[in-house]
Amino acid sequence: MPDPRPAVRLRRRCAAVAGSLVLAVLAACGGQSEPLNPMVGADLTDDSMYGLVLDQPYTVAGPPLVSTRGSAPEGTPFSLTEDTDADLTLVFFGYSNCPDICQMVLANIANALARLDEADRERVQVLFVTTDPARDDVTTLRTYLERFDPGFVGITGDLASLQTAAQSFHVYFEEGVRLASGGYDVTHNDQVNAVDADDTVPMLWLRDTSPHDLAVDLATLLSRPAS
């Protein structure tokens, strides 16, 4: 049977090119547009992967943050550079009160990991970094992530530190705002980022990446010899 992946990738890359031409990305949850595009610099000709491979990998920043690891109610100090010790780390920025996109992406990540063999699954770390520190404390993040995978680690901290970390991933967000309707809006980019052992981001996946496609890419990355 012919491999359907080239056609799928071609459609996705055409959409990515169109997005970069207007230099805007539809931000998750808020439905607003951000002026900076995390896909700029992506290699749209790499047909070996479903995700977008970056010609110039992002360099991860490591300001002081707090994680849900351990039993301390206030959390455990965490650095996105010093404490990302897995062979491959997936980093997604979002918030627990997101009505739709964040839940979908986290569910897709959990589904993708379930498709890997156990040995590969143990080599992948998943970090959910909040864009809403005013409401996402350690306890809230622990409870929220249990719905998807108890191994997922929640990350919070002060707003300035979180924004510094996010900017290194080309993720941009602002402090949440209360809407006239009574709702609460937090606008942010929504790609899933791969972090390697060198604390760089060599590739990312858009929010519409299916669990199958993500699992195939993860298996490919894990099969490559360490540099």
From TrEMBL:
<feature type="binding site">
    <location>
        <position position="98"/>
    </location>
    <ligand>
        <name>Cu cation</name>
    </ligand>
</feature>
<dbReference type="GO" id="GO:0046872">
    <property type="term" value="F:metal ion binding"/>
</dbReference>
<keyword id="KW-0479">Metal-binding</keyword>
<feature type="disulfide bond" description="Redox-active">
    <location>
        <begin position="98"/>
        <end position="102"/>
    </location>
</feature>
<comment type="similarity">
    <text>Belongs to the SCO1/2 family.</text>
</comment>
<feature type="binding site">
    <location>
        <position position="102"/>
    </location>
    <ligand>
        <name>Cu cation</name>
    </ligand>
</feature>
<feature type="binding site">
    <location>
        <position position="188"/>
    </location>
    <ligand>
        <name>Cu cation</name>
    </ligand>
</feature>
<keyword id="KW-0186">Copper</keyword>
<dbReference type="InterPro" id="IPR036249">
    <property type="entry name" value="Thioredoxin-like_sf"/>
</dbReference>
<feature type="signal peptide">
    <location>
        <begin position="1"/>
        <end position="27"/>
    </location>
</feature>
<keyword id="KW-1015">Disulfide bond</keyword>
<dbReference type="InterPro" id="IPR003782">
    <property type="entry name" value="SCO1/SenC"/>
</dbReference>
<keyword id="KW-0732">Signal</keyword>
<protein>
    <submittedName>
        <fullName>Protein SCO1/2</fullName>
    </submittedName>
</protein>
<dbReference type="Pfam" id="PF02630">
    <property type="entry name" value="SCO1-SenC"/>
</dbReference>
